[in-house]
Each structure stands twice: as structure tokens, then as C-alpha cells.
């Protein structure tokens, strides 16, 4: 029998290898088929595995896109703001614009967007954000309006490295913002507030370096301003040991360039304290400064403490400082480079009685003392200020002494400057007084003439008809409205500076066509007596001139109404 036909097996290894290019003598490039271990690389199972793997990757990618919306065309505006270029090579204007856009978008963003941005861009880079000139603002914004969890995480990271970050300008601002928010809402950040209070109440060498550091002492000033009760008391007790007190460590804040700012802050917060112990500590610090004022006024930075007491201190402290110490030490203080600034401030904030006592007992007591003050390179400034605030009688004595020294050729360059200033100031106020008196006399005459005219017009006015009476009522109502408008303008007037004042005085001297009322307001009442116009300060004289101008406008309005009525 013939052998049955046996079909050739297509996948038989031997036949398959015979078809390879290397077996058939072909010049084609060898492929993976020449490796016997990869003979089944393109089997059906391999293609199925590849398809399943592609499907899994596609499903995972779709899931990520649905959760985060990372597609650029659908990215939230807050995320777009944070992806903006904030590198250092950009201009200041562009960096500032990007930073403000971040803050604005964060404040208006939804909670979901805030979570995404915080976890993506900020959470792992808080320290660098706090040190950046522009990005630290976004941390302040998160602390102010962000979720409590984000705020507390930032505060934890910042205060854990507070010794490292507190001396940086931008990180210190973030700490101050955090302190403000914690004091405002302590229930949201109890743990963070306790950590900060534990830090601020330390009495270590590192804290002393913070007190006198240019940047870090700002957080101490902020703490004095915001803390209350027992927390403020503990801080003041620590600081009091290093302010004009005998301490074994020879560490003094009042004479330091930045430590004196802490003392000034204590003087500033004293009136706001209600706790007896806290107020007592602040008072003791201020009294110690007053008792040591002779030394402090001559120090480069400590003299600002005495100036702070004169400007913002309580009246009791001011009087104690001026009556007991500064008036006796005025001449030597005025001759000093830094003390002359304190002497000038003393004259400004003292009353007329104190200036008179100073003039009679210290300045004009002898010709030699007056000559020494006038010719000194530092003392001539407080002497000029003293002449500006003296009364007319003392001004005349001042001018007489200057003329005597000038006649004897005893005035140097500084003395000549004082003489020119005194003559100019004296002349301006004298001419102003003359103008005011002459205009008042004119006003009195015009008022008397108007009274006579009104008496003569009484009889025909009584015989007026009803339409004429209606017209008079309308005119009176219109006059009242004009007066109200003038009063409103008076409330809106701003203070003039010295140059504007001098220009107004010169204009008054040239144009003598103004009309005034008979009585002037008592604008300044000090020591229970009226101060005459020629010895008022420049500010008081300007108040008088503004009042006179408004009275003139009222008079002009009345004259117009009277002329219209007569016609």
C-alpha cells in the first residue's frame, strides 16, 4: 500500500529553521529568529499580554487625569499662578506681580485648589519660601486666610528652626504675621502659641543676641505690642534686668543701636497697660531712664530714649524729666553733638513757663553763657528754636544781646546764622501783627457804618410788601447755606508748611484789601491766659490766618447781599 499523505506541520522547529535567511543563503539582515532561544517570541500569548498591559496603563492614566485635572487647558488659576516663573533673573516688577497674583488667587481659590497647591508646591519647601523675597508673602497669606491645618504646619516648621530663621528679614516677617494670627485666634493654634511663648521667655545667651540683632529684635517689639497679662509680665521681667540695671553680665540695651528700640517700645506701650504689676515694671524702666538722662542724652543711640519720653511719654514723666534734670543740664546738653537734639525737642514740647524759666535762669543769666550757646556749632540750633517760642518781651532781650555781641565782633559764623534767623523771624511776626491790627481797625469802622445804615433803613423796610419779604427770606436762606459751605471748607483745610505760611504772610503785606470781623477766636489757651498773636507759634498763626480768610469771605458775601437788596 502506498503510504498515506502526511501534511507538513507548519510550526515544526526543523522546517521553521530551514526558512531562516541564514539557512537559505539570503543576504537579508539577520533577525531575532537566528537566536534559537527566541523562536517563540511572536506567539499569540505574547500579543495578548501586551494588549492587556496597554489597557492597564491607559486606565491608570485616565484615573489620574480625572482626580487632579493636570491637563493644561483645564488647570485651575491658582495652579497656573504657582507654575509661573519666579526665578531670580526676572525683573523686580514681574516678580512682584507674580507674587501678588499668587496671593490674590489663593485668597479666592476653593479648598480643593488650596489643598492641591499646598501639597504640591509648598508643603516640602516651607523654609525656602520663608527666606525668599517674594514667596514669603504667600506664607503670610496662608497663615492669615488658609485652613488651620496648613497654618499650623507652617508655624511648626518655622518655629522649629526659629534660631536659624529669626535673623532673616523675610522669615521674621512671617513669624510676626504668625504671632498676630495666634494672638487673635489662640484656640486654633494652642500648641504653636505655647512653643513660641516658651521661646520668647528664655533667658539665655542666644536670646541676648536676638535683643540686639538688627532683624530679630523686631519680633521682640511685636511681642511687647501684642502680648498681654502674665505673658507680657514675664517678658518685661527679663528685659528689665538688662535696661539701666546693675547686672553681672554687663549687658545693656539702652545704649545699643537696636536695643534702644525695645526701650522705646516699652515707653510706647506704658499708657495701654491696665495690669498693676506690668504697669509698675514699665514705670520703673522709664524712671530709671529719667534718672540717667544726663548720660543717655550724650550717647549716640540712647538719646532717642529721652526724645521718646518727651514726645510720647506721660505728662508726669515729662515734667519730672524737664524740671528736675534737663533745665539744670541744658547748657552742657546743648553743647553736645547728640544732646543738642534732645535740647531742641525739650523746647518744642515744654510750656511757656518752662521756656521763660530756662531763659531767665540758664541762657540769659550771663553774657558769657549766651555767647557760648550762640557761637557753638551744635548749641546754635536749640537757641534758634528757643527764640522762635519765646514771648515778645524775651524776644526783645534776645535781639538786644545779639546786637551787643555783633557790635563787639563776638559772633562767629554760627552766631551770624542765629542773628539772621532771629531778625527774619522777628520781622515776619511784627509785620503780621501790624497787618492784623490795621485790618481789624478797618473792619470796626465798616461795621459801625453798616449799623448806621441799617438803622436808617428800618422804616422803609417795615413798609415793604409781601413779595419783598419773600425775597428777603430767600436771601437769608441763601446766606445761611453759604455760611454752612464755608464751615465745611474750614473743616477740610489742611495744615500749611512753613514755606506756604511765609508766602501767605507776604501776600497779606502786599494786598490790603481784606475785611475782617471784630473779634478773633481764642485759638490757643495755655496756662489759663490768652496768648497774644505776635508770640504765637507758626502753626497757631496759620490757624488764625485761615480763620481770618474765611471771615473775609463771609463779609464779602454779606456785602453782595446788601448791595443787591439796596438795588
Automatic annotation (TrEMBL):
Disordered: region residues: 438-474
Keywords, in A-Z order: Repeat
Tree of life domain: Eukaryota
GO cellular component: cytoplasm
InterPro entries assigned to the protein according to its UniProt record, in alphabetical order: PUM-HD, Pumilio_RNA-bd_rpt
Residue spans of the Pumilio repeats: 121-156, 284-323, 325-360, 364-400
GO terms for biological process, alphabetical: post-transcriptional regulation of gene expression
Ranges of residues in domain PUM-HD: 57-426
Repeat among keywords: yes
Protein name: PUM-HD domain-containing protein
